[in-house]
Amino acid sequence: MTLEQLRLFIAVAEREHMTAGARALNVTQSAASAAIAALEDRHEVRLFHRVGRGITLTEAGRLFLTEARAVLARATAAEHVLDDLGALRRGTLRLVASQTIAAYWLPALLAAFRRQYPALSVDLAIRNTEQAAAQVHDGEADIGIVEGAIDDPALAHWPIGEDRLLLVRAEPFPDTPLTAAWMQQARWIMREEGSGTRSTLNQHLRRLGIDPDTLDIALVLPSNESVRTAVEAGAGIAALSSLVVAPGIRAGVLHAVPVPFGPRPFFGLRHKERYRSRAAEALLAFITAHAGIAPGQ
């Protein structure tokens, strides 16, 4: 049974005339007659009484007319949904981001995006970098934005923003330059393994000739806020995003030291083989335009 057969049946039934129904849909009378005969033969039921040159609905035909109209109405509604999705008049975008990005970098961008596309919903999940990549890989999220590099051949990744790690503690740092020996003797507060902050810090330390495994790590905590709070309480030093520590530095409860960590890129993630929706395209284009980063993949 096809939608075209249903349309022809309804057109003929409403007019109780084969030629008039066919004309209404711009098909030949023989095509309309063949479509209705195919329905009747397939289901072994007569939909019309054929008396002389006239036709009228049988009881089965009257019952079927109600159902056929309902099916076509649902098909029309489904077409409207696809039209709306294509025109960004509706839809939900599943986004996953690592903690620093989700808490400090994305909110203003998402608020502005919603003002431009008020009919689109964004469902944001917060995970560490490895967990976010896994969600994109498994199809649980359409787009990911993370702080650390990802080694997964199934995922495309490209720079989409950046911040900078700052080394902070509760007391002012000495005026003399910090040495590798000083950092190895210091007590550290760390994010958990798998976080973008932890992996980026480890890369910077190795470039400075410091083995991260030799550090005196007092605490390993699962969020930026818990690390920052522990540092503010005097538990040790930590490397955190400039976005995370800026309020504490302004308030005088944290102090930073200029260590040459350099900028830290944020990466967009998508699965190479999964369909990217119009909503995902719109969000990536919006972030690219507002973050000043070259367009991604």
3D structure, described in words:
The chain is of the alpha/beta class and 297 residues long. The protein folds into three domains: 72 residues, Orthogonal Bundle (Arc Repressor Mutant, subunit A), CATH 1.10.10; 110 residues, Periplasmic binding protein-like II (D-Maltodextrin-Binding Protein, domain 2); 101 residues, Periplasmic binding protein-like II (D-Maltodextrin-Binding Protein, domain 2, 3-Layer(aba) Sandwich). The protein is built from eleven helices and eleven strands. The strands form three sheets. Strands 3, 4, 5, 6, 9, 10 and 11 form a seven-stranded mixed sheet that branches. A two-stranded antiparallel sheet has the order 1-2. It has a two-stranded parallel sheet with strand order 7-8.
Write the layout of secondary structure elements.
Blueprint: H1 3-15, H2 18-24, H3 29-43, E1 48-51, E2 54-57, H4 59-86, E3 92-97, H5 99-116, E4 121-126, H6 129-137, E5 143-146, E6 155-169, H7 180-185, E7 187-191, H8 196-207, E8 216-221, H9 224-232, E9 238-241, H10 242-251, E10 255-257, E11 263-271, H11 278-291
Helix pairs in contact: 1-2, 1-3, 1-4, 2-3
